[in-house]
UniProtKB/TrEMBL annotation:
Name by which UniProt lists this protein: Chloramphenicol-sensitive protein RarD
Family: Belongs to the EamA transporter family.
Localization per record: Cell membrane
Keywords for the protein's UniProt record, in alphabetical order: Cell membrane, Membrane, Transmembrane, Transmembrane helix, Transport
Membrane-spanning residues: 18-39, 51-68, 80-100, 112-129, 136-152, 158-175, 187-207, 222-240, 252-270, 276-297
Membrane topology (UniProt): Multi-pass membrane protein
UniProt cross-references to InterPro entries, sorted A to Z: EamA_dom (IPR000620), EmrE-like (IPR037185), RarD (IPR004626)
Species: Geothermobacter ehrlichii
Keyword hit for Transmembrane: yes
Keyword Cell wall biogenesis/degradation: no
Amino acid sequence: MNSSASTTTASDRSRQGVLLGLTAYTLWGAFPVFFKALAGAAPLEVVCHRIFWSAVFLTLLVALRHRLGTIRATLADRAMLLTLCGSTLLIAGNWLVFIYAVQIGEVLQSSLGYFITPLLSVLLGFIFLGERLSRWQQLSVLLALAGVLSLTVQYGRLPWIALFLAGSFGIYGLLRKIARVDALIGLTVETLLLAPLALAGMFWFAASGQAAFLNGSLRLDLLLPLSGVVTAIPLLCFIGAARRLRLATTGFLQYITPSLHFLLAVGLYHEPFSRGHLLSFLFIWAGLAVYSGEALWKSRP
């Protein structure tokens, strides 16, 4: 009876984890739709609002969970704080470039960037953490590199948006792994560190007459503060999923986000998708298939 109950509990936790993971990655995948709706506000103003309202929402959430002491302890740890300052700059830059990409119609590059990220993370682990690369992982990284080079040769310029999104998020993940602070507390500290600058930026936009917020658009007046909640909710779902699922499972679920970005870019926003794009994505997808296949093999019972 005890064994049966334990199996049922584990199964329930797994189902809950999959549901939470699907929710998190689907919401992240729908981000282009939300941030397209903020057209009319400058990308920097959007980021200022996203940071400030995220800080407000997350701080309230942490307070409700009676974890403000953890925030104070994190801020008092100099080594931890220095690492989080670095991760803060990276995530803010990532948000800014992503919003810029959405507004100028480069969602396809954001898709490419987030497809590359897992493979770049493997390479960063090898360079900075001394993690060994298997032959299959080496092949997956080389295929990703071939995809980037293919697109570069085709258009005569680097796909800088994709590379910046992948690089900033990959290094962000590396720093957060070094910091060893849980996702909720870490993101709360990061947004709190930037909140004064974000608030100053909001006042600057208002004083210079360039603010979209409270300037006659009810849509923007509602959506800009909502960007903080939109940022936090998928993160909380992700935390719940990560606690319930194996790493291999969350690894596969993460491809939902760039896949949705890809479908939105090509199917809804009709961004140009040439043979050069196709060849580049085929290299990336092949690299991901090799990487995922090995991960699945290693995680088998």
